[in-house]
């Protein structure tokens, strides 16, 4: 898996916007999700070291120091993010995703597609290569805002 994503990153570096540094990477990952109309809390990665986006090919990569797990409380689901997460993005969709797994019952399932078919439905769908998919409320993946008071 790792070498495949590294190869894709290498192939898409030329002409890509590449950002480094934790706070800038986090900001850029939120901007990217916003730009493709996906909820900003979808990739809750904290120790980002690099974010790249090749607008020509639509290829995006996010590198973080360590593999992380995040629990989306609203849906009671654990999601694991590898040290490299890659995808091809377009409006309301991430395709050919690598590095993201969701825990279904007791097994980790690799997620290959994330998309919002109909914004009016307020649902976001996660699918894997075998064609299984599951939809959840988009609201479950919004950023969990920290209280500033």
Give the radius of gyration.
15 Å
Coarse morphology: globular
Largest sheet: 10 strands, antiparallel
Elements, N to C (H/E): HEHEEEEEEEEE
Number of strands: 10
Global structural class: alpha+beta
Our measurement of the CA-to-CA distance between the termini, rounded to an integer number of angstroms, reads: 43 Å
How helical, in percent, are the residues?
Answer: 10-25%
Question: What's the overall average pLDDT, rounded?
Answer: 93
- Total of helices: 2
- Which stretches are poorly predicted, pLDDT < 50 over at least 5 residues? none
Write up what this structure looks like.
- This protein has 149 residues and is an alpha+beta fold.
- The chain contains 2 helices and 10 strands, in the order H-E-H-E-E-E-E-E-E-E-E-E.
- The protein has helices at residues 2-12, 22-35; strands at residues 17-20, 48-54, 59-64, 68-72, 77-90, 93-104, 107-110, 113-115, 123-127, 133-137.
- Strands 1, 2, 3, 4, 5, 6, 7, 8, 9 and 10 form a 10-stranded antiparallel β-sheet that branches.
- The longest helix is centred in the first third of the chain and has 14 residues, at 22-35.
- The chain is globular and about 35 Å long.
- The model has no long low-confidence stretch (mean pLDDT 93).
């Amino acid at each position: 898996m790792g070498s495949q994503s590294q190869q894709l990153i290498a192939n898409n570096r030329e002409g890509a916007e590449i950002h480094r540094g934790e706070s800038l990477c986090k900001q850029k990952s939120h901007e990217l999700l916003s730009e493709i109309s996906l909820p900003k809390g979808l990739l809750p990665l904290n120790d980002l070291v690099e974010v790249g986006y090749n607008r020509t090919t639509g290829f995006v990569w996010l590198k973080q120091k360590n593999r992380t797990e995040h629990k989306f409380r609203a849906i009671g689901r654990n999601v694991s993010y590898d040290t490299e997460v890659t995808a091809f993005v377009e409006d309301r969709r991430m395709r050919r995703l690598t590095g993201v797994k969701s825990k279904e019952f007791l097994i980790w399932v690799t997620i290959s597609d994330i998309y919002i078919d109909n914004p009016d439905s307020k649902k976001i769908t996660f699918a894997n290569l075998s064609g299984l998919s599951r939809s959840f409320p988009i609201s479950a993946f919004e950023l969990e805002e920290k209280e500033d008071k």
